[in-house]
Amino acid sequence: MSSVQELLVSLGVNPASFQNGSLKVHSPIDGAPIANVVEQSSAEVTAAVERAHAAFTQWRQVPAPRRGELIRLLGEELRANKEALGRLVSIEAGKIIAEGQGEVQEMIDICDFAVGLSRQLYGLTIASERPGHRMMETWHPLGVVGVITAFNFPVAVWSWNTALALVCGDAVIWKPSEKTPLTALATHALLERALKKFGDAPEHLSQLVIGQRETGEILVNNPRVALVSATGSTRMGREVGPKVAARFGRCILELGGNNAIIVSETADLDMAVRGIVFGAVGTAGQRCTSTRRLIVHSSIAHELAERLKKAYRTLPIGNPLEAGTLVGPLIDKAAFDTMQTALQKAVEQKGIVTGGQRVLHDRFPDAYYVEPALVEMPAQTEVVRHETFAPILYIMSYERFEDALALQNEVPQGLSSAIFTTNLLEAEYFMSAAGSDCGIANVNIGTSGAEIGGAFGGEKETGGGRESGSDAWKGYMRRATNTINYSRELPLAQGVKFGDD
Ligand code: NAD
């Protein structure tokens, strides 16, 4: 058994699920095959939806704080296995060790949040216009939740959805990325351990279905799946959204971003450089919140570009499992080819490119490591308006703050945004109704990453969904408005008279 397979077994995964299946998994670290995962047929996926629905009808009747106990147990499993699961994330998705561990920490954090939430699924009490009446809102479990996830956050995104959905009384079916099924198998094995300790949860409350996008399509088209929470490219969201809408299902879409940082002439440049470099090259530019555009005041544009070039020259690129590495590999050759095509286009559109070449091909001929690229652009051209899922940072300059804001908002995506400034008026304007149009608008902190306490998601082509903290849980429940008459009269609303009145 290879070391990856031993790691999987130590996390509780049955070897039969990854030894002789049809889905070949490669590690982006060296391109080597690491497992052959068993995929589910379409009939099996449909049967899983039926089983999930049966589980839902029981789980919705379990008191919410008791449901929270299951998530508390899941959090314990994750704590105990943080290092092993984080390592598997690094092996399968190519993240550096600290980011792999950080991803598991996010899972632990959302579990803690959801346990508290299980006692706080509050509704409002509303003043009734009728005497002797009371109105209120009640939140009820929604149904089966289909969770479709992307390769770059192979486990955290599942937990953001599942911790909330299970506490809210729903059943879950997870379709992970076809590029990262091993971390899904391991995560699900940990949930199964928690379920065993919990004792009496209905069978099939949470299921994992492995396959290509067609597997996801079965969840998308099945009316038994009340909510589809899909994370991935805008292309995917464009296919999924209308199909779910056509059957009046509910969607949470978490799609591509094209995140910008505005750097004002008053910015603390030391802080800005740190925030920009982490945001642009972390996870090798493969985060939905990666910094892809810099909009810099012309008076400091040259200085900032030079400082970034200097910082980029010393970036440790290499095997993400080795201590000291900050930039790991791209996920695969297709990602590398897409990056090179974008850089060619940038040159055609008058950009000046620094970096961007493939490196380490002698040591890793079947893996794709790149120098992160800085591209000085004369304008926000067509290529800049696109999300290229790779470490490319476009730099543009501005004269007036209003122009910077217009550039920031003038792209189809609306996920994350930031401004570095010490000018209070600019900072407030950036966060105001006329400011950034993104779901995340930060001041003096970069675009990348987010705490689980806030609702996460973005506007426009990012899909409009919200998950994780704040009141995102409402997306996983249905709301009933209740009017209770405790009088002996039956007054009608709006003063309507009917019959003998
Ligand atoms: P992708 O769109 O190729 O795939 C994502 C998932 O959707 C996979 O599980 C895939 O099998 C499934 N899928 C694809 N087409 C489908 C369809 N028609 N019906 C049902 N399922 C389908 O994305 P990827 O390459 O894995 O991930 C990178 C993308 O994800 C980037 O665009 C990134 O910005 C985005 N992303 C967004 C967020 C967010 O929260 N906004 C988070 C992570 C990643």
From TrEMBL:
Homotetramer. This is aldehyde dehydrogenase (NAD(+)). One of its GO terms (molecular function) is aldehyde dehydrogenase (NAD+) activity. The lineage of its organism: Bacteria, Pseudomonadati, Pseudomonadota, Betaproteobacteria, Burkholderiales. The keyword Oxidoreductase applies. It comes from Advenella faeciporci. It holds the Pfam family Aldedh. Residues 21-479 form the Aldehyde dehydrogenase domain. Belongs to the aldehyde dehydrogenase family. The keyword Methyltransferase does not apply. The active site is at residue 254. PANTHER family: ALPHA-AMINOADIPIC SEMIALDEHYDE DEHYDROGENASE. Its EC number is 1.2.1.3.
